[in-house]
Design a protein that fits this description.
Blueprint lengths: L11 E9 L2 E8 L3 E7 L2 E3 L6 H6 L3 E3 L7 E8 L3 H4 L7 E3 L7 E4 L5 E7 L8 H12 L7 E9 L3 E3 L3 E2 L2 E3 L5 E2 L7 H21 L8 H17 L56
Parallel strand pairs: 4-13
Antiparallel strand pairs: 1-2, 2-3, 5-11, 6-9, 6-10, 7-8, 8-9, 11-14, 12-13
Helix pairs in contact: 4-5
The chain binds flavin-adenine dinucleotide.
């Protein structure tokens, strides 16, 4: 990436900052180049969801719903022959309508998949249990599921109480954490920097007062709040539910392609209809 106004430096870390007077003093360090003090009029913190800078400023993150921090199980798995055995159209992602509400994401177009599903309250699964659950959801034997890695993760939906403190402004995940569902995280972050970018320039060039920067929070926070659930955009499942439903037609080759999640899904051997697929993944709102 190259921009006349951007000096991109890799492997530098913001160690400390001090906001006072007409700007910010930022202490940077690098393994290769030592330490450096930078004086700037404004600091835009794009340091991610954990944002040490937001914490140092004492800006709270406001969570709209108490259950926003639901836990999920993630797994990297090899599912040999899944593509041949499913009666559904080839897809990048499959959303299973089963008790686990499992999501399968293709990693290589072949046998490698990323599997995620919500965990119940105190659930803490071993790799063997994850394997059995995936096999159960796919209606295949555990021998057809090779678990390469498992990780638990928790999503969040929270927005900083303010996107500005003095000469420091928050942008991206530092300002708002939201669920991956819907794909709004980075989009919202890009909206942030588009908004705050021209305003900082206006102030630096002297054709707008510093108070213009207060409109950054006013304009961007409601947008972030909306995607974080303030307008019901995302609700998070907290526990599995419902009866088990098979997904694959065991050992039966796929006969032709079908429309995504279409009603033409063939009945499973048990007589029940199997899951939905999504050739162009439709984001779920949780
Ligand atoms: C599974 C998943 C799927 C997603 N899908 C989508 C999608 O489809 N569409 C979408 O728009 N968004 C999506 N997102 C969200 C998106 O990835 C994030 O919103 C985006 O990456 C946030 O960018 P950021 O720059 O604000 O933070 P980050 O990407 O977290 O970057 C912050 C950076 O700051 C660095 N840093 C932290 N502290 C310091 C320090 N003291 N000094 C120097 N550097 C520091 C970190 O190392 C990191 O590199 C998804 C997220 C997940 C987890």
């Amino acid at each position: 990436m190259s921009q006349p106004s951007v000096d991109l430096r890799y492997r530098w870390c913001c160690e400390t900052f001090q906001d006072g007077g007409n700007g910010v003093r930022v202490r940077l360090s690098s393994c290769g180049y030592g330490s450096r003090l930078v004086l700037a009029r404004y600091l835009v913190a794009c340091d991610g969801a954990a944002s040490p800078i937001r914490r140092a400023l004492g800006l709270a993150s406001v969570r709209d719903a108490a259950d926003a921090r639901a836990r999920w199980q993630g797994a990297l798995v090899r599912l040999p022959g899944l593509r041949q055995r499913t009666p559904h159209a080839p897809a990048v992602q499959y959303y299973l309508i089963n008790p686990r509400r499992m999501i399968l994401g293709s990693l290589d177009g072949g046998d490698l998949w990323r599997v995620t599903f919500p965990l119940a309250g105190g659930e803490d699964l071993t790799a063997g249990e994850v394997r059995a659950i995936i096999a159960g959801a796919l209606d295949c034997g555990t021998g057809s599921v090779e678990v390469l890695d498992t990780r638990e993760w928790s999503g969040d939906a929270a927005v900083a109480e303010s996107f500005r403190s003095g000469h420091v402004l928050l942008a991206g995940d530092a300002a708002h954490r939201m669920w991956p569902s819907g794909g709004h995280g980075m989009n919202t972050g890009l909206g942030d920097v588009a908004n705050v970018g021209w305003k900082i320039e206006a102030v630096l060039r002297g054709w707008a007062p510093p108070a213009l920067l207060d409109t950054y929070t006013t304009e961007r926070r409601p947008t972030a709040s909306a995607w974080c659930g303030g307008h019901g955009a995302i609700t998070v499942p907290t526990s599995p539910c419902g009866p088990t439903r098979p997904w694959m037609t065991p050992n039966r080759p796929r006969s032709g392609t079908r429309s995504a999640g279409g009603s033409s899904a063939p009945a499973s051997p048990s007589g029940r209809r199997s899951a939905s697929s999504s050739a162009s993944p439709t984001p779920t709102r949780r």
